[in-house]
């Protein structure tokens, strides 16, 4: 700042600096146990192995990792991954969940009976 300056302007600039410095760092890798999803490279890692995902599989897995332990309805999944105009009677969610199970291991995606959709990506060792 150049002199002369108003004290209110100095305080406003200090508050702005403090706010930007206090922000949490941006999350670039979502994790559940030994499963990691890198949001920059759009790759999944399961243990030491890299798993290639299609664009829809990536968005679906990201949705599950961002909502750990939550039961997501079929409508929530369809609207987030495929958009609101997608047919709710379609079995597309089942098809993509099956593909993720095949790539990541069947034990990773837990299905809650009565809802028919995966509830969460789980850690095979017992944690979520």
TrEMBL record:
Coiled coil: none annotated. Keywords: DNA-binding. The keyword Protein transport does not apply. Residues 27-121 bind DNA. Residues 27-121 form the OmpR/PhoB-type domain. SUPFAM superfamilies: C-terminal effector domain of the bipartite response regulators (SSF46894). This is OmpR/PhoB-type domain-containing protein. SMART domains: Trans_reg_C (SM00862). It comes from the Bacteria. Pfam families: Trans_reg_C (PF00486). It comes from Streptomyces hydrogenans.
